[in-house]
Design goal:
Rossmann fold, 3 domains, six-stranded parallel sheet, two-stranded parallel ribbon, 14 strands, 13% strand, globular
């Protein structure tokens, strides 16, 4: 069983153990039992098992064989350096790590392109930016610089590692798994899917995938059949939500209203017909003139939730967009006499409410949730810094909406949203359900 991150994999393993204490877990890939790891950890395990034999797979993917692949490339910095070294002919708007990394992960690595001639011919569906022949040559020069620097440093990036692991399994015929279960499949990248396909031989029930395209906060749109995984006619949607109330679900769904979301079959995915088995209070949206006033309210709210005695303290959470805001909230609430623990990795410890980023909240749930700091300056985040083209910008904005949807849907019973100054443009003004409409501000 695999998923996108190590933290989510650990959560899955704990949930499975609670469901079936007698379930047999495997400590290593290929051992008898159920092995639960993040997809990048599985790639690393395959590469470590391959030993010196990995050189052929490295050559197949990167063009030059080597075995010194233990280090991890700092991708953002490495692409910037590659542009400085070899990007003089590259259009200014393409000199962005975000564009180059996406081109590498979505086009070059999945096709295992190792020379310019092949890159000049390959199709680039869904990439948004059209590249002339000269443009492709300029991109390829930067790719060669990126690969050359990594070769000198003895490093791989995560996508390269997954691609090489898949190539090794394909070449050797090794299939360390009989069945592969994928959770949070919407965030997998092409090389991840190639690895999933290579882990198990094609057979009935070889691969099972759970995904929610509305929660795509890391990955990009793709079609599974391009990577040897055929699900057409064998997919079905789940419409009944057992976690959150109808009111909270309506508010979360409102974040994505009007957005085009596509699943891994390339089909439009709709939230029409989504239902909740539970009801509860309406979500509240509160505005404040200053951050100080917002923190005052947050301290009173979290303190009242914890002090009510109705729920365990650790089932109260404050969710924020980034680590800086998280640490500010922890400090600010502490100054006001409310102790909140920052959650980075590991599990939620009993006895205290937690503060965590929206990304870290993926795969969790809490009885009562405060979404803090949802001003226009905090969310969407980072879009101007990356200088996206129109299509990339649209996808980045949708990822931010999906992130807010994920955060809002972590609340089982009660959801409160706060901001100071002007509100984020992602906040829904109308939910489409009278019982789920956000309330006014103070």
């Amino acid at each position: 069983m695999t998923t996108f991150t190590t933290i989510l994999a650990a959560e899955l393993a704990r949930s499975l153990e609670r469901l079936d204490p007698d379930l047999r877990f495997a400590d290593a890939l290929g051992a008898p039992g159920l092995h639960v790891k993040g997809i990048d950890a599985l790639a690393r395990a395959v590469l470590q098992s391959a030993g010196a034999d990995v050189s052929e797979a490295v050559a197949a993917v990167l063009g030059v064989g080597r075995t010194d692949i233990g280090g991890r490339t700092d991708t953002d910095a490495a692409w910037r350096q590659a542009v400085l070294r070899a990007g003089e002919d590259l259009d200014q708007k393409l000199r962005k790590p975000a564009f180059l990394a996406a081109e590498y992960e979505m086009v070059i690595l999945p096709h295992r392109i190792t020379q310019l001639a092949d890159y000049l011919k390959v199709a680039r569906p869904g990439r948004g930016v059209r590249l002339s022949r000269a443009g492709r040559k300029a991109v390829w020069a930067v790719v060669e610089a990126y690969r050359g620097a990594a070769r000198e440093a003895g490093t791989l990036d995560f996508a390269e590692a997954a691609s090489i692991a898949a190539a090794h399994l394909e070449a050797t015929g090794e299939r360390p798994a009989r069945h592969v279960l994928v959770d949070e499949g919407q965030d997998f990248k092409p090389c991840h899917w190639q690895l999933v396909r290579a882990l198990a031989a094609e057979a009935p029930n070889d691969i099972f995938i759970a995904e929610d395209a509305h929660q795509r906060i890391y990955g990009q749109k793709l079609i599974l059949s391009a990577y040897g995984i055929r699900t057409q006619g064998r997919s079905r949607g789940l419409k009944l939500n057992y976690r959150t109330t109808a009111q909270n679900l309506a508010w979360a769904v409102g974040v994505l209203t009007g957005q085009e979301v596509v699943d891994s079959d390339g089909e439009a995915e709709t939230m029409a017909g989504y239902l909740s088995a539970r009801t509860g209070p309406k979500p509240e949206v509160r505005s404040f003139p200053t951050l100080t006033a917002e923190l005052d309210f947050a301290a009173d709210l979290v303190g009242s939730w914890v002090g009510s005695g109705d729920i365990a303290s650790e089932t109260v959470a404050v969710l924020v967009r980034d680590r800086v805001t998280r640490d500010r909230v922890v400090a600010g609430l502490g100054e006001r006499g409310v102790e909140v623990r920052a959650l980075e990795a590991g599990t939620v410890k009993p006895g205290y409410p937690v503060a965590l980023t929206m990304h870290r909240a993926k795969g969790t749930e809490f009885a009562r949730v405060l979404l803090f700091g949802l001003s226009k300056d905090s969310m969407p985040m980072g879009l101007k810094a990356y200088d996206y083209d129109d299509e990339e910008l649209s996808e980045a904005q949708l990822r931010e909406r999906s992130l807010l949807y994920v955060a809002a849907s972590r609340a089982r019973d009660e959801l409160v949203v706060t901001y100071s100054g002007s509100p984020s443009g992602l906040l829904p003004s109308v939910t489409g359900d009278d019982d789920g409409e956000p309330q006014g501000s103070v």
